[in-house]
Amino acid sequence: MNAGNFSLIGEAKRKHQSNSAEISALTEDTSYGIRGAYIFNKHLAVELSYQNYGEQEFIFQLNALTPEINIKTETASINLGVKGSLPIYKGLSLTGRFGLAYWKYVTQQTSSGIPEDNTDFIEFDFYYGVGGQYDINKIIFVGIEYNLLKLTFSPSTKHEIRNLSFTVGARF
Q: 9, 10, 60, 137: which could form a disulfide with 165 (CB 3.0–4.6 Å)?
């Protein structure tokens, strides 16, 4: 069995930090994704996945004389990477992954309810993660994983995504 597919559902915690606009936000939302893999052996696989990290919303005011600004964002990525597995006991394995994420960060900004600006940021950054996997039988497996993706827009603006996911997969 050299190929597998997975579905993922979890919770993404996002932290947005912008020094230029003095914005800092920490939010959570449901994440979901799908992943395919080519399994070379019990220790190594190559993976391709799509992950949606949900939405984030924050409100801020530049100063007391300006209207409130509301920003809604959505983040998703296509990831290509490698997964390493270390079998530890009868179908139970520790896993680690590392790869390149092609991410898209979509913003919709309004001021006093009036749409002002829609911006898409698209870039590449590295992701990495750790987890565990349990083989129910030779075909079906379940797992839990924790992944980190740091998006860099500029030296003064960063967005960090910490994603905890439950996975269900099948080998074929």
A: 10
